[in-house]
Amino acid sequence: MDIKFNTVLVTGAAGFIGFNLTKRLLDSGCHVTGVDNLNNYYDVKLKEDRLAILAPHENFEFHKIDLSDKNGLEKIFKNTSFDVVVNLAAQAGVRYSLTNPGAYVDSNIAGFVNILECCRHNNVKHLVFASSSSVYGANTNMPFSVHDNVDHPVSLYAASKKSNELMAHAYSHLFQLPCTGLRFFTVYGPWGRPDMALFLFTKAILEGKPIKVFNHGNMERDFTYIDDIVEGVVRVMNRLPKPNQKWSGDAPDPGSSYAPYKLYNIGNNNPVKLMEFIAAIENILGKKAKKEFLDLQPGDVPATYADIDDLIKDVGFKPATTIETGITRFLSWYKDYYGHK
What tens digit of pLDDT does each residue of 18-32 get? Predict the structure, then answer.
């Protein structure tokens, strides 16, 4: 699709989604400034190898910086005028938030306020930010809709992402800053995160070690391939959120606003049972997994399923990559990257 913007700031540019989005934007002729703190939540070499692919591009500039560094961020915004800011930097992971809550406060809350302030004071035309399917928390009405109330998170990570949505709305209301939040659903694919299920399962199976199957396999996830996520993000970047003229404080719609603010789910709209996902990996690898069945982890939810009607209606896009295709591409990358035959 045609891109209507030129200069973009991508936070978390060395991360899984940030790297893939930055590569896509550079290939489309955009000037991209990437920031990332390269923390050690997972293998830093993987992040550095992603950056090594981006670094040679003449339209790419990188700053190693933490979002909590307000002065450092302000300098970047002063030096470059950004059409769009895409905030993908965050302390990720539901389980990690149980033992390291401070990391989520520093990055996902304090860091996000710094991004909002920089956007506000530097005339950024559109802030697009990553939320998460985790915000649905204790909701059980399927598929999850952005128009449903999400006031019952079940992890600090989820609560921090919900706080991003609330803070962005406040800035949209106070300063007319156009903000779009994207709730991503279980992203997977080449260059993926080592703490995610597909990566963990693949590594264990190839090494002949048991995989941990939580909730005794009674889980469903709306697995969404990375290229579909990136396509959705780019399309949303192109679409400034408009005030919803029908919005009413008497019956407030959580997914839109009287301000220039909008939320979208980006998911495959097709939940897959965990045991079917594992079977697909086994079939493609040609190797059976040793399974260790465990209880549901604190902070996890049994199922996710994205309602993407608004995404289809507003930007004309529906993710469609099958898990067989996506897993095959991931396994090809994994074997090549780690030298497996």
Answer: 999 999 999 999 999
